Automatic annotation (TrEMBL):
It holds the Pfam family RmlD_sub_bind. It comes from Ensete ventricosum (Abyssinian banana). CDD domains: dTDP_HR_like_SDR_e. Transmembrane segments: none annotated. Residues 20-192 form the RmlD-like substrate binding domain. One of its GO terms (molecular function) is oxidoreductase activity. GO terms for biological process: S-adenosylmethionine biosynthetic process; UDP-rhamnose biosynthetic process. One of its GO terms (cellular component) is methionine adenosyltransferase complex. This is RmlD-like substrate binding domain-containing protein. Pathway: Carbohydrate biosynthesis. Keywords: Oxidoreductase.
Length: 306
């Protein structure tokens, strides 16, 4: 099992910064962005070739790369969406449960920190954390959303990973990037839906938060982290911004959760995550609305609106 060097001459050895990352998820959205960031910053990295569920392949990747840190941006999210996981349960378990746990275990054996891009879609608003209350779920809260098979298995894995002191679990939610043409981008998705619900949620601006995940690796941080920008934003608030910055003629239609349930298979999670812990470590972290404007809408404004 070989490794592909993505960073030219610098990736073969360790730079003066002493870092060398091994990244899983080469062909994925987050894995691709992460590799791009490492290249920009001159951080040596390689992508792992192994499939997560094959322990020997992961061991070979690590032996070949001698990384300082491992990043896991691999897993199945379902195509065209998470409903796929409802009908592909074994494949979902193989990658997201067996695979993720195998990687965490191999990293632990080698004394390596694993930065794991997980999900915050394991909670839903409840009596103690009502919608619009500003009371978010904390890192130590027990997941209460098992409505979809994807979320259910992600919650199980998170629980098991708590026992691995070498793992940094990043609870990503509804990721957004400045690439408004990417079909995975939450903004792109909701601008293309025929109808959208309108619910405030915690979300992750990748342009701001992926560099922070690199910094977290440098600081050797571990444990669970709500990995979203502080505060919530609703679908309609984002679409209003889209109209203001990108397409003044844009229109959309809303529907409610009952109507949405008719066009999806599994229910979706809606929640607010408490970001006190992340903000404490990174005081410069912007609120979700500030981050949307700074990283997504302002940079796209000049390009899209003459
Ligand atoms: N996108 C979201 O909405 C979202 C939200 C919250 C959290 N996350 C989490 O963030 C992570 C990355 O998400 P993403 O959106 O970047 O996913 P993505 O674009 O679907 O990419 C997934 C990557 O995982 C790889 N992969 C799948 N199964 C694998 C296996 N068994 N062994 C090795 N590699 C495997 C894929 O490679 P192949 O193409 O070779 O299979 C691909 O490179 C996932 O764990 C996801 O749960 C995503």
């Amino acid at each position: 099992m070989g490794l592909t060097t993505e960073n030219g001459s610098t990736a073969a050895g360790k730079e003066p910064c002493g870092l060398k990352f091994l990244i899983y998820g080469r062909t994925g959205w987050i894995g691709g962005l992460l590799g791009g960031l490492c290249t920009e910053r001159g951080i040596p990295f390689v992508y792992g070739d192994g499939r997560l569920e094959y322990r020997a392949q992961l061991e070979a990747d690590i032996a070949a790369a001698s990384p300082t840190h491992v990043f896991n941006a691999a897993g199945v999210t379902g195509r065209p969406n998470v409903d796929w996981c409802e009908t592909h349960r074994v494949e979902t378990i193989r990658a997201n449960v067996v695979g993720t746990l195998t990687l965490a275990d191999v990293c632990r054996e080698r004394g390596l920190i694993l930065v794991n891009y997980a999900t915050g879609c394991i909670f839903e608003y409840d009596g103690a954390h009502p919608l619009d209350s500003g009371v978010g779920f904390k890192e130590e809260d027990t997941p209460n959303f098992v409505g979809s098979f994807y979320s259910k298995t992600k919650a199980m894995v998170e629980e098991l990973l708590k026992n691995y002191e070498n793992v940094c679990t990043l609870r990503v939610r509804m990721p957004i990037s400045s690439d408004l043409l990417n079909p995975r981008n939450f903004i792109t998705k909701i601008t293309r839906y025929e109808k959208v619900v309108n619910i405030p949620n915690s979300m992750t601006i990748l342009d701001e938060l992926l560099p922070i995940s690199i910094e977290m690796a440098k600081r050797n941080l571990t444990g669970i982290w709500n990995f979203t920008n502080p505060g919530v934003v609703s679908h309609n608030e984002i679409l209003e911004m889209y109209k203001d910055y990108i397409d003044p003629k844009f229109t959309w239609k809303n529907f409610n959760l009952e109507e949405q349930a008719k066009v999806i298979v599994a229910p979706r999670s809606n929640n607010e995550l408490d970001t006190t812990k992340l903000k404490g470590e990174f005081p410069e972290l912007l609120s979700i609305k500030e981050s949307l404007i700074k990283y997504v809408f302002e940079p796209n404004k000049t390009a899209s609106v003459a």
